Amino acid sequence: MSARIAERFGGRAEVTESYGDVTVDVAPDDWIELLTFVRDELGHTFFDWLTGVDDPPDTFQIVAHVYNPDARTRLLLRTRVPRADPHLPSAVDVYRGANWHERETYEMFGVIFDGHPHLVPLLLPDGFEGHPLCKDFVLAARVAKAWPGAKEPGESGHGAPSRRKTLPPGVPAGWGPPDA
After folding, report:
1. Residues 6+ apart with CB under 8 A from 17
2. What is the pLDDT of residues 4-35, one digit of tens each?
3. Helices 31-40 & 2-9 angle (0-180, nearest 10)
4. Residue 64 burial class via C-beta count within 10 angstroms: exposed 0-12, middle 13-18, buried 19 and up
5. Residue ranges of the NADH:ubiquinone oxidoreductase 30kDa subunit domain (predicted)?
6. Is residue 44 part of a domain?
7. pLDDT digits (tens, 9 = 90+) for 61-73
8. 165 phi/psi in degrees, rounded to 5
9. Which end of the chain has fewer surrounding CB within 10 Å, N or C?
10. Is 159 within the bounds of a domain?
11. Can you tell me the distance from the alpha carbon of 53 to that of 133, in angstroms, rounded to the nearest whole number?
């Protein structure tokens, strides 16, 4: 399988194997060609999932997992898009199951899938601003409402004295209540 991918894409694809799983990395221009090739030529007809990975400071990684039910083999397919212009061709024409996953990735990361038939918000309430799975997204709920349980030594009323209060992970300094 790896040899056939390398034969087809040459230096345009990086094929790696780890623990029996094959991962293929391509440029965004080769994304649809790779998906079509593994479906039609390698028999990976089952589309499992697609998601994004925030990879600061410059890129988003788009990851798809496909499966060949006859050979019982799976592939992890990846590409990177720049944060400044996060566009990637839609895979819906190759795998219809990519529809929901691309909508979710668009909503959670802001990656735009060009040619998607209905790229609209899927999970978040109307009027929601931002992309909550991006690493620079401030999770306001971490600051707005304190954790109900003791989280520092001494906060339970007995034991060692409390340490200096710190902001929760993902909250920039100077954001939130002044005592945080």
Report:
1. 2, 23
2. 999 999 999 999 999 889 999 999 999 999 99
3. 140
4. buried
5. 24-142
6. yes
7. 999 999 999 999 9
8. -70, 135
9. C
10. yes
11. 8
